[in-house]
Amino acid sequence: MAARGERRGRTAVDRSAFPYRMKDLCERAGLSRQVVHFYIQQGLLPEGQKTGHNMAFYGEQHLKRLQLIRQLQEERFMPLKAIRAMLEERDDAFTPKQRELISEVRQRLGPSIGVVGQKDTVGAAELLKETGVSRAELARMVELGLLVTRKQGGRTVLARDDVFLVELWGQLKKAGFTEALGFRVDDLRIYTKAMFSLFVSEAQLLSDRLTHLPPGQAAEMVERALPLINTLLVRYHTAQVRNFLATH
Fold it and tell me: I need a labelling partner for 245 at 20 to 30 A (CA). Which of 29, 92, 118, 228 fits?
């Protein structure tokens, strides 16, 4: 009686849309059950369609999401915080037409800015020795989600594209911005947070305004605008410093 009542209490699931049990999903994604559950807890992966207290089924969207997370972690060295923020924006902010534009921009602009292909890596020990940045400071950068390190061939490595951040912090220390004066790696967050917020607004603006154009033309415009916008950011920041000093 109890068993029949439990079966009656289960929710029916369309198995054509959600064909995978957790075991199947893990095998296809090449990830452990613990990792998949962690991604769900962290908001990186939607929960499955539950049929009971301890049973859920998953669809192709879950598998593709896991494959993307793994790719971003292993090939792009993206921190989980950045991946979650990116996925939230991808899910909520862009229409299918806007995503078509983004795809076209990626194909056109991706190779020149390192979007396509696996990243080169640099040994952390060698980089720290060159820059004067401590292991504790590098670890804090990882903890803050500024960059990612991993083990490769028995040594700790990071993506070559992230080297600039470690080098920059080392140069700031040499310029006198030391921990003795209260400066810490955490201070870089005011810039990374501001840049991420700016980029999200920028991506939304461009995708809103350019989606009525042929994707190839829109992608060409974005490609031409990128260096101009970078110049604007640098010069406007300098102008803000200049104006502040002139009025205080």
Answer: 228
